Amino acid sequence: MNWFTYKDGELYAEDVRLGELPGQWGTPLFVYSKKTLLRHIGTIDGAFSGIDHLTCYSVKANSSGALLSIMAGHGLGADIVSGGELFRALRAGIPANRIVFSGVGKTPDEIRYALEEGILMFNIESESELGTVNRIAGETGVTAPVSFRVNPDVDPKTHPYISTGLRKNKFGIPHDRAVEVYREAAGLPHVRVIGIDAHIGSQLIDVSPFGDAARLLSNLIGEIQAAGIELEIVDIGGGLGIRYDEEEAPDPTEWAEQISPVIKRTGLKLIVEPGRSMVGNAGVLVTRVLYIKKNEERTFVVVDAGMNDLARPSLYGSYHAVLPLREHKTVSKVVDVVGPICESGDFIAKDRNLRMPGEGDYLAVMSAGAYGMSMSSNYNSRPRAAEVLVDGTGTVLIRSRESYEDLVARERIPKEGD
After folding, report:
1. Integer Cα distance of 360 and 356 in angstroms
2. For the CA atoms of 197, 201, 203, 207, what is the dihedral angle to 10 degrees?
3. How many CB atoms lie under 10 A from the CB of residue 111?
4. Tens of pLDDT along the chain (418 residues)?
5. Using CA atoms, how far apart are residues 199 and 162, in angstroms rounded to an integer?
6. d(CA 152, CA 172)
7. C-beta separation of 209 from 236 below 8 A
8. What does the angle CA 141 – CA 56 – CA 121 come to, to the nearest 5 degrees?
9. pLDDT digits over 198-228, tens only?
């Protein structure tokens, strides 16, 4: 659900007309709806109210400090995959004891930083990582709380680039070696085994794979406990899909119904890690039409937002709805909506049937709240976009647009003799 709707032919975010914003903040511009975000926090976290749980928002989806601060204020924790995300989460007010550190490539410096801050736990992805965490914990004089990410070999039925729980993926400990690895960890002096983790993929529309993963983890918990290792936490990850086009996106209660009954029988605390489902439909990318270009075969709507602002269409072939800020009754035409980046792969939409906009018109690229700004770059030396948060009738700038000076602020051109 979201609060981006047309009123009298104008696209609004809550009670703010989006057409007012480019004149104030420029384009490309990410616009977020606080009301939508709060709705999703309440709906997703509330779906698990019948079980002892902690909702840890997956920071990689959107790492805006303003959005993280809202989540902190509503009791959410954070799922992080880097030291930078840890810094952002702490800065936004998320307590360290509500932070889970995932990811296959944690560096020694990141591990040390997380230990010093006292995070809830590390989701360990390999035996090599386990040895490094144990060593650094010993050097730091603390005991590291750890969980193991187990690869359950469950097919999430999603895009192969965002599938993470199959045997061929780089993530996690193989299921058939899990008990052996838990025994190894239990014998180490500077780690304390407290949990088990699985994450099978992203943008899941069919929730049944979540149930498959939960049952596999439940059975594995029994084997681990039979080996004399007591656990406290089950981390089932995230991955709940949203509606981009015509998908029948699942309700969070359907997700919870697959997971909660199975995990509840284990008696352990549940951690869930929603990301896209929290923020995806809470944000749009506003862009200006620069040119209408035609050749013998195609019509191109050239806009000022490119693959450096929103990488998903170019990276995954992903669909994002494209809507005019002002409804009009021009002739519909099949067009490609493309950006200014010097790559043929730079597009927002291909073969899309749109009512033809004019040069200078503004478009909204919908469902851009997740993996938009967080994946953006300075490719082609383009300053990154500004971000604005809408709250009812008001707006606040939560990230200013980068300048050309920002692009080179950390560079140094050596002088002769240096």
Report:
1. 12
2. -70
3. 21
4. 799 999 999 999 999 999 999 999 999 999 999 999 999 999 999 999 999 999 999 999 999 999 999 999 999 999 999 999 999 999 999 999 999 999 999 999 999 999 999 999 999 999 999 999 999 999 999 999 999 999 876 654 544 433 443 444 445 688 788 999 999 999 999 999 999 999 888 889 999 989 988 999 999 999 999 999 999 999 999 999 999 998 888 999 999 999 999 999 999 999 999 999 999 999 999 999 999 999 888 999 999 999 999 999 999 899 999 999 999 888 899 999 999 999 999 999 999 999 999 999 999 999 999 999 999 999 999 999 999 999 999 999 999 999 999 999 999 999 988 8
5. 11
6. 9
7. no
8. 20
9. 988 888 999 998 998 899 999 999 999 999 9
Q: Tokens 């490119």 map to which residue?
A: 306
Write out the catalytic residue numbers.
342
pTM of the full predicted structure? 0.93
Q: Which residues contact 413 (CB under 8 A, 6 or more apart)?
A: none
User: What does the chain come to in residues?
Assistant: 418
Q: How far apart are CA 179 and CA 185, in angstroms?
A: 10
Q: Quick one: which of 10, 54, 195 has its CA closest to 121?
A: 195
Residue for token pair 């039925």: 157
Give the C-alpha separation, 182 to 226, whole Å.
Answer: 12
Are 391 and 37 a contacting pair, CB within 8 Å? no
Residues pairing with 148 in the sheet: 124, 196
**Residue 280 structure tokens:** 């995806």
Spell out the domains of the chain, with CATH numbers in brackets. 4-31+280-408 (2.40.37.10), 34-277 (3.20.20.10)
The owner of tokens 């709805």 is 321
